[in-house]
Each structure stands twice: as structure tokens, then as C-alpha cells.
Design goal:
single chain, alpha+beta, 2 domains, two-stranded antiparallel ribbon, 5 helices
């Protein structure tokens, strides 16, 4: 098998509309030992291998693009219409608070009131007796 060039791989990925990063694909197989092997067996057809990567990437969400910076996205969200969009680690959304600060201030007391201890109960008398000894 003749390994593809980067230009050949990019053209094939565009032609088939695959979600494969061509540089990552080439680096993976060129850096394998020996080159262009998969689990010790030689790669016979790089086009089929690229299609396998596409299906694996789609199931793993590996090659989606961040909607903010065009890096590869790893976090999926949905907008108001239900359409999915991706964010990278740098643009990951922060969690929204469930209750606003104003609502929390109204609902929760400003100070915590502690219950009064009954000094007349038997247990407190016993503890005080032990402390005095």
C-alpha cells in the first residue's frame, strides 16, 4: 500500500465529508511501529481506515468543532431550539445557579438561631458534676 500524502487525505476527507482530523490520522499511522500498521497488522486500505475513524469519532464525539474558537470541542450543549453545539475546554459553560441571590436572601434567615439548652435536665446535671470533680 502506498501511504497517502496530507493533500490526498484532505481531499478524500472533503469528498466523503468525514469527521476525521487528517493530521491526527497521518501522525497516528506514521508514528506506529512499524509505520502504517494497526495492532501489528499492515494497513491495506487507508480509505477504509479513514472511514472507520469517522464512525468511531462520531460515536465518541472526537472531532466536533468548538463554536467559539474552532478548536476541537469535547462538551456538547443544546440551544433553545434543541440544536446541539460544541465547546472546547477553554469555552466550557459555567453552571447556572438555581436560585438568584435576591430570592435566597428573602428565603433564608440572616442569622442562625440556636435552640436553647434546657439546663434543668438530668444529663446536663451529670455532665456538670463530672466537670466539677
Amino acid at each position: 500500500m502506498q501511504p497517502p500524502t496530507l493533500d490526498q487525505l484532505e481531499a478524500y476527507i472533503k469528498l466523503r465529508n468525514l469527521s476525521v482530523n487528517p493530521r491526527k490520522f497521518l501522525m497516528h499511522y506514521e508514528d506506529s511501529e512499524p509505520p502504517w500498521t494497526n495492532n501489528g497488522k499492515p494497513v491495506k486500505n487507508w480509505k477504509l481506515t479513514a472511514q472507520s475513524w469517522h464512525y468511531n469519532n462520531m460515536s465518541r464525539a472526537d472531532t466536533h468543532i468548538c463554536s467559539m474558537c474552532k478548536n476541537y470541542g469535547v462538551y456538547v450543549y443544546k440551544d433553545a431550539t434543541g440544536q446541539a453545539y460544541w465547546r472546547c475546554v477553554d469555552h466550557k459553560l459555567k453552571h447556572k445557579t438555581f436560585v438568584s441571590k435576591e430570592t435566597a436572601d428573602k428565603a433564608l434567615p440572616k442569622t442562625i438561631k440556636l435552640h436553647k439548652v434546657n439546663k434543668n435536665n438530668e444529663r446536663n446535671r451529670q455532665l456538670n458534676a463530672l466537670k466539677e470533680k
